[in-house]
Each structure stands twice: as structure tokens, then as C-alpha cells.
What does this fold into?
Amino acid sequence: MTDLKPMHSHEGSVDSGSCDSRREFLGTAVAAVAVALTGCGKLSKEEFLQHNFRELSKDEIQTIIARLEAEYKEKFHKTVKVGNEAAMPGVIFGYALDLSRCIGCRRCVHACVKENNQSRDPEIQWIRVLEMEKEEGVNIQHAEQYYNPDEVPREGHFYMPVQCQQCKKPPCVKVCPVGATWREKDGIVVVDYNWCIGCRYCMAACPYGARHFNWGEPHIKDADVNPDTHYLGNRPRPKGVVEKCTFCIQRTRKGLYPACVEICPTGSRKFGNLLDAKSEIRQVLESKRVFKLKEDLNTQPNFFYFYGV
Amino acid sequence: MNTAPIRFAGLTLLLLAMPSFAHEPSKKGEPVAQEGIQVPKPPFSEGVFPCTACHDGKQLKVNTQRRELAMHSEIELKHGPDSRWCLDCHDANSRDNLHLASGEKVEFTASFKLCGQCHGDKFRDWRVGVHGKRTGSWNGPKQYLLCVHCHDPHSPHFKPLKPMPPPTRPEDIKLRKGGAR
It folds into this structure.
């Protein structure tokens, strides 16, 4: 206390105003510097000073959601609801995909885009369907993702959709330098789009190519925007952030199946609670031949592939 | 330093900004018990049901002889055609029903029992949700499909589909002013 210089003691009288205006001034100054440094002219002061989602209080979350909803209303000319449902207790989500049934029709890819408000232009898709040769088996070296015959399945081929594997040891989370992505209690790996700095380390770390970057300003027609969203899921994203499959967090946390499960015409996609012994996913794991993609990397996915035959 | 007024102002602002509808978290944590098997209506071709509209035993007499039919020519039997024909599954005397190998009559809405006679492994998988499509709620009521919704009983192999468009190849991404760099 004694080494405090005298000028500190009457600092308050320097600008003759209250703390309020000084804070305001500092906030605006920081925001202005940020705008100058980053070139992000559209970033509001509130947005710039916003904290990581996990550090926010309930009130702060409500304020931010109200701000986002107002922004979306202005941008898309309709009411977009941003939810923040928490993980249900006693639930860890698991997913299984039947490789013996998938015919590679890509209904899931497009249902996912529709549900999760991915940018249509530039195009972002969270599910990639790989066409593989039956003779080769599951071999990424012999996979083709741009196949486009008149009819699927093609003779001698099988199909392997790949999306986020919701790993128990997610390498993407490990490398994020700012903690903008994490694994939720129900096993869903999520991204805080307002905290993501767009460094794309996570994309380099993910062995499944499951993360996607908004290289350009995302474009979705107003009519195509799904208004039922979740803060950590399908709310419209800004340019310069990474996004990924969240098992349709806005649906599954309300008890619904993910959109890809609902659309699949072959019933290849199975989803449920890994902690519920009677769930479909547990039936699959207990009675079928199951494998994990790139199991040797010890990422421990909660996404399984199986042969239902 | 007197910070109380600032705190008060901040709190007021927060409260004002808070939407009036407080968000209710979902209460579906508990799995709901499954009651029976709910299936949609069987996928009849238009105008064929009820079968007794024609097969009433008066206009058409029952003929159990295996033969080429004059009617129902759209049906191509590709379901073990050498060892099977219409009346193995359709009941000759009660036309609006199917029947099991035992002779027991089965409604069209419960045709899975008929399929399950031979395809027991698939039937077991279907009952627990491993085979076939389920929609609805992962922790609540689910909608099943009948076997025949995906597999035409006369020609059960799943029909090929036209795939939806593939992703854009990187070399085909168009450069756009103000868009992607």
C-alpha cells in the first residue's frame, strides 16, 4: 500500500466522470482496437467482450441468446429460436451404422444440411459418404466420395458414411489452443462459435475429416433456415469458424432422433443411450459384429460401424 | 470506490434483456416403456384392398390350382417363385387376411408374423430395433415400419435409388467476389 504512487489515489478525478463512463470508454477503446487489428468490422462490442460459453452465468447466456436471436431475425427475416438445453443426466449418446445395409443414397447428407443450417454456398456438408470396393474391404485408400451413378448401390461396392465420431478422447479438443471446443457430459463434442478463433488446428488433428471451416461468408436462403436451433449446435455460424456434427444436439437433447436417422431409407442408422441396456444401440453392440473407424488411434469413438447381416 | 449503483444498473439491464419466457429444460430423461408395436398402414397398391371386393366367393370362385393369373399381372413373383405362390401367404377362404404355415389367420397389419416364420433372425432384430427403420423418439414412443414397407413381399430385394448430388470437387469451387477466397 505504501508504494502506491500518489497519482493513483486521485485517478478518479482525472476524467471527472463516474466509473461507468470509464468502463464504457475502455470497452469501446478495446473494441475499436480489435476492429483495427482484426478487420472484423461487424463484430459488436458485446460480442467481442463475450466469454467462453462454459464460463457464462445463466443470465449472461440469456442475454447473449437474446442478442443472437435479434441478429438472426434481422438477417433472415424470421424468428430463429436459439436453445441451450443441457445434457440429460444418465445419458451418453451412441451411434451405430449398418455397413451391410447402407446403399450410399446420400439422403442423410442433405437432410443434415437442411437440419443444421450449413452454408449452401460455399457448400459445407458434415457427412461424407465413401464408396468402397467389396474386394478391398474398409480401405480408405480405395474410397471415392464423388460417385454419382444413376442408381445405387453399384455392383461390387459398399458405402461408408463418415461424420464426427464423437470420440471419448477427441484429438480435436486436445489441440484447441483457446478451449473453444469440448466434450459435453452426454458425449457430444461441441464448438462455441463465438470463442473459436478459426486456427483450424482441430481440423488437422481430426483423423476423420469431420470438422469443416467456414472459408467464406455462409449463405442460406431465408426460407431454408431451420429456426429451431441450439447455441452449441445448428445456430447460423459466422465466417471464419469451424463446425461439425453434433448428433443434432437441438433434436437429441429433446428426445428426438438425429435428422440422418429419421431420413435413412434403409434403416442403417441406429442411435440411442449407451447407458440404457434396452436401447437399440446397446442391442447392436451386444449382438452384432462391430468395429470403430481407425480404432488404433485410440480416439475411442462413440460412433460404431456394424454388419447387421 | 462506490460501485453499488453500477452493479444495480448492470443487474437491471440484464433482467430487462432477459426474455420473459424462461426456458424449460426437457424432462424426457427417463426412458418411456414401449407399449406394443405401432406400425403405419400396410402399403397396398391403390384400390386393391379390401380383397373381398372382388374375391367374395360369388363373382370369383376359389380356384386353388397353381396357374398364370389373368389379374394382378403387375405382380412379378421374385420371392422363391419355384416353391411359392399366392395362396401360401394369402388366405383362400378369408381373402382380407393372410395366414401362417399353421393355417392361423393374420391381419395385413401384422404381416411381420408371416415374414418372421422364415426370417426369424431378421424378425428378432426388427423387434429390438436393430433391423429396419425407426423414427420418433430415442427415449420415448417410436414408429416402426412393417417389413413390407421396405421389402415388396412379392419381390423383397431393396430397390436401388438415385443418389442425391455428390459434394462439389475442390477444383469446381467457383471464385466469387466477396465470397470464398
Q: What stands out?
A: Helices of chain B lie at 4-17, 111-118, 120-128, 147-150.
